[in-house]
Specification:
Elements (H helix, E strand, L loop, with lengths): L5 H30 L3 H10 L4 H14 L5 H12 L1 H25 L2 H11 L1 H6 L3 H13 L7 H7 L5 H27 L3 H20 L1 H23 L10
Length: about 250
C-alpha cells in the first residue's frame, strides 16, 4: 500500500487544524462576544483571572489577529481601560508581535498555498500588487500608520512576499505603535472619566484616517520614489572617486 507523501500529510494536518480552529471559534464565540460586549465586562473578566490577567489579555490580542473577527482598536482601547496607557500599550504590543509572528510564520512555512488561494478568491489585486517589494513595503507602512483600516490580513499577505522578517516587523511596530498608544490613552481617559481628552484623541484619529485615505496614493508614490532614489545612489556610493589635482 503506497504511503501518502509528505505534502499530502501536511495539507491533511493543515485542513484538520483549520477545521478545529473554526469549530472552537464557533463554539466559544458567544462567550467571547459577551466578554467583549462592553469595557466593564472585559475588565471584570480580565481581573477575575487574577495573576493570569495579563496573559489572558495578550491571548485576546493574539486571537484578534490570528482568527477572531474582533476589531483591533477595541482590544487596544480596552488595554488602556484596564491597565492604563503605559501598561496597556505594552501588553497590546506584546500580543501584536506574538499574534503577527504566528500568522506570518504559519503562512510562510506551512500554509502558503492555502492562504494564497484564499487571497486570490478574495481579491485578485493582492497577488499582482505584492510582487513589487519596495512598493509593498511603502504600502504596508502607510496602511499600518493610518488608523481605522483593517490591518491584520496584511500579516498573511506579507508572508507570501519575499520581504524579510526583520523588515516586516520593523514596519509593523513603527507603523502601529503610535496608534496603539493613542488607543490605550483613549481607554485610560474613558476609565478616569476624562472624556474631553478622549474625544480630542478620537477626533485626531478620524482626521488621520480621512487624510490618509485621501492622500494614500500620493504617499505611496512618495515612498516609492524615495526607495528608487536610494537604489540609484547605491552604485554611485560604491564607485571609487579619483581626485583631480589642478596645477597652481
Amino acid at each position: 500500500m503506497p504511503q501518502p507523501s509528505k505534502k499530502v500529510m501536511i495539507n491533511l494536518l493543515l485542513g484538520m487544524f483549520i477545521m478545529l480552529s473554526i469549530g472552537l471559534l464557533i463554539y466559544y464565540s458567544p462567550a467571547i462576544i459577551k466578554i467583549m460586549s462592553s469595557m466593564d465586562n472585559f475588565r471584570a473578566y480580565i481581573h477575575s483571572t487574577g495573576h493570569w490577567g495579563p496573559v489572558m489579555f495578550i491571548l485576546f490580542q493574539i486571537l484578534q489577529i490570528v482568527v477572531a473577527p474582533i476589531p483591533g482598536e477595541v482590544v487596544q482601547v480596552a488595554g488602556g481601560y484596564i491597565y492604563g496607557t503605559a501598561i496597556g500599550s505594552l501588553y497590546t504590543t506584546v500580543g501584536l508581535i506574538l499574534g503577527s509572528a504566528m500568522a506570518f510564520y504559519f503562512t510562510r512555512f506551512i500554509g502558503r498555498t492555502y492562504i494564497s488561494r484564499l487571497l486570490q478568491r478574495k481579491n485578485d489585486k493582492w497577488m499582482s500588487f505584492i510582487h513589487d517589494e519596495r512598493k509593498f513595503s511603502a504600502f504596508l507602512f502607510i496602511f499600518f500608520v493610518i488608523p481605522g483600516l483593517p490591518k491584520d490580513m496584511l500579516v498573511f499577505v506579507a508572508a507570501l512576499t519575499t520581504i524579510s522578517s526583520f523588515r516586516f516587523f520593523t514596519i509593523l511596530i513603527v507603523g502601529r505603535l503610535p496608534w496603539i498608544i493613542a488607543s490605550a490613552a483613549v481607554g485610560s481617559k474613558i476609565h478616569m472619566q476624562q472624556y474631553t481628552i478622549a474625544i480630542i484623541i478620537c477626533i485626531i484619529a478620524v482626521i488621520g484616517f480621512v487624510l490618509g485615505y485621501i492622500y494614500r496614493e500620493k504617499l505611496m508614490g512618495l515612498f516609492s520614489r524615495s526607495d528608487r532614489a536610494k537604489a540609484k545612489t547605491k552604485p554611485i556610493a560604491k564607485s571609487k572617486v579619483i581626485p583631480s589635482y589642478s596645477k597652481e
